[in-house]
């Protein structure tokens, strides 16, 4: 619990620096294009990722997390089939991005795909979730809510701070919102607004058609 509270305190400090602007947060990382960008078709998802700073950040973060997941499987009894399965899953995910070509909002579709995949890898491979200076994702962090449900949050401290909220059976892409204290994320869905307001180890979760829930980390 002490480590988790420390993590949340650091996250809030980082978030404050991000919201304060480039001067407080430090110089922005250079947008290094992926090697395949030069060969990407004009109207492809790959081209869209190459030309978007926000999507480019997520693509690099996914690459970082995926490599750490692979590294955790190298050597010993864990190599072989598990590693090949992870490679196949990643290839299938990459190919599945093309389904976003049919989406009304391609950017939102691709963003959700990246957030969900990064969160999945971080949860499945502990080594992939280890924090590094060049990483922009944190979590997942589990919040136990007053109705007995579990809200799982993965945070992204990129150019636009985001959070990926998972609460069965739904998942939500949340964007940072102005807040006097704590970290407040929200989204406007077709069914109503979603809001997650985190202050230390406590949070308030509001979902469409439901009363606000009190949630805490560690089940406390």
TrEMBL record:
<dbReference type="GO" id="GO:0005576">
    <property type="term" value="C:extracellular region"/>
</dbReference>
<feature type="domain" description="C-type lysozyme inhibitor">
    <location>
        <begin position="143"/>
        <end position="213"/>
    </location>
</feature>
<keyword id="KW-0472">Membrane</keyword>
<keyword id="KW-0564">Palmitate</keyword>
<feature type="signal peptide">
    <location>
        <begin position="1"/>
        <end position="20"/>
    </location>
</feature>
<keyword id="KW-0732">Signal</keyword>
<keyword id="KW-0449">Lipoprotein</keyword>
<dbReference type="InterPro" id="IPR036328">
    <property type="entry name" value="MliC_sf"/>
</dbReference>
<dbReference type="InterPro" id="IPR052755">
    <property type="entry name" value="Lysozyme_Inhibitor_LprI"/>
</dbReference>
<dbReference type="Pfam" id="PF09864">
    <property type="entry name" value="MliC"/>
</dbReference>
<protein>
    <submittedName>
        <fullName>Uncharacterized protein YPO0702</fullName>
    </submittedName>
</protein>
<dbReference type="InterPro" id="IPR018660">
    <property type="entry name" value="MliC"/>
</dbReference>
């Amino acid at each position: 619990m002490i480590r988790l509270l420390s993590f949340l305190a650091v996250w809030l400090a980082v978030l404050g620096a991000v919201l304060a602007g480039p001067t407080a947060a430090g110089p922005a990382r250079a947008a290094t294009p992926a090697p395949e960008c030069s060969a990407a078709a004009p109207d492809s998802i790959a081209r869209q990722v190459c030309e978007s700073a926000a999507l480019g950040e997520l693509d690099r973060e996914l690459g970082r997390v995926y490599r750490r997941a692979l590294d955790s499987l190298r050597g010993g009894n864990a190599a072989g089939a598990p590693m090949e399965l992870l490679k196949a899953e990643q290839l299938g995910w990459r190919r599945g991005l093309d389904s976003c070509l049919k989406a009304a909002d391609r950017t939102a579709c691709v963003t959700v795909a990246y957030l969900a995949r990064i969160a999945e890898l971080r949860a499945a491979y502990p080594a992939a979730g280890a924090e590094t200076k060049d990483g922009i994702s944190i979590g997942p962090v589990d919040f136990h809510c007053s109705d007995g449900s579990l809200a799982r949050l993965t945070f992204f401290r990129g150019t636009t701070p985001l959070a990926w909220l998972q609460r069965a059976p739904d998942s939500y892409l949340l964007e940072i919102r102005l807040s006097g204290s704590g970290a407040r994320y929200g989204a406007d869905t077709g069914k109503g607004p979603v809001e997650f307001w985190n202050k230390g180890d406590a949070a308030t979760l509001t979902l469409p058609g439901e009363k606000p829930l009190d949630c805490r980390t560690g089940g406390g």
